[in-house]
Design brief:
Structural class: mainly alpha
Number of helices: 21
Order of helices and strands: HHHHHHHHHHHHHHHHHHHHHEE
Strand order of the largest sheet: 1-2
Shape: globular
Largest sheet: 2 strands, antiparallel
Strand content: under 5%
Radius of gyration: 21 Å
Number of strands: 2
CATH superfamily: MFS general substrate transporter like domains
CATH class: Mainly Alpha
Helix content: over 70%
CATH architecture: Up-down Bundle
Oligomer: single chain
Length: 459
Amino acid sequence: MKQSIIDNQPYGRFHRKLFLLSSGGPFLDGYILSVIGVAMTGATDELGLTSFDAGLVGAAALVGVLFGGLVFGPVTDRVGRQLMYTIDLIALVLASVLSLFVTEAWQLIAVRFFAGLAIGADHPIATALLSEWLPSKRRGRMMGALVATWFIGASVSYTVGYVFVVFGGDDTWRWVLASAAVPGALFLLFRIGTPESPRWLLRHGREAEARESIRTAFGRYPTAEELTQLAESEPPQESRLRDLFTGGYLGRTLFAGGFWACQVAPAFAIWTFYPVVLGAYGFEQGNTALVWSVVVSLVTLAGCFPCIRWVETHGRRPVLIWTFVGVAVSLAALGAFPGMVAALAIAMFVINALALGGGNTLQYIYPTELFPTHIRGSAMGMASSISRIGAAAGTYLLPIGLDTIGLGPTMLAGAAIALLGCLISVAWAPETKGKALHETAAVASTPVVNNGVKVPSAQ
């Protein structure tokens, strides 16, 4: 089947605007999940948080993301992308504002969970909508770039937090957390009026609305032939969550959630407690460690850029595998030599950050490419939720691990998780570059073989 009007459309003004609006979700995800590391010192002192409490505070937003993806992924497949595209940000802004009124540990945990719930909802909504509008030749690059905005959000949060701490002291931690409401409100306002995905509309038999949506986006109505061709690739079909666990899609669900979990389990643990972890390697607690948190976050962002290009030139599969190797090796070095000088520790963290940034570009590419429109939001939500089980566990266990088994074994545990992710990728990662979205989502009767290894088919 030839590629559709959407797959062949030149990348233009509408795509750029949709990308910027969709980036609000990962930007705020990075902001909200990272800013807690800045606020933790002040919150711990004022609320009297124990290491147990600190683990729950760090993990609360991740648990919220887990449930947000599970609940709202299927919802966006049923009611549409455009409606949910704004509702989730309303909840996020509200959760951020509520941070100003926290007086007890349980309230902070609850607010963080609520914020995570909104973020978890945005993962399947924004990624499904963007991927369903992007042309084939730019889909991998732009979905990878969407992940990069997570690190921009993280870097901005550390910078904002640094300004608050330097000029206001640790007791400004509530304002640090509430500051996420400002970008959240801006993204919310600009998202109003975004056209619905014509792929989703055709799956629900709403052909006239699909024509209008295409006209709004591209400035012209599709011809009868173009609309017929797109409709043939998106036949009406009911959204059923169980489809994620049947036929060829079960393996894809396990792969998408599995590699993502292995990426974020050690990463979120370190990101959430960067000042604490860097302090364990000899950096002065407080502003010095916070400055290095900003630096390493920016390095992680830098790691995204070459891989955003490589996923289109070299392919998705090799980028995923080799970035896992970089993460595993760097964490193994940090774990094997916990007494290394601070300069060498920073070098290892830089290598780790570059590899993490590059590998994370696949987090939004694979889940959106490997599943059809009627379950794409559900698949993205499921993969995100599976990943957050690992992320929440890692974030909760890191401060406990530092207190009980020590710095070295804790870093080695992170290296082992990265190695597992590498093995999952070698065994199951398919290659999808250059294919139309309906082609990457189709399940063939037999697996594709990459380098002699059977993987879930993307043909």
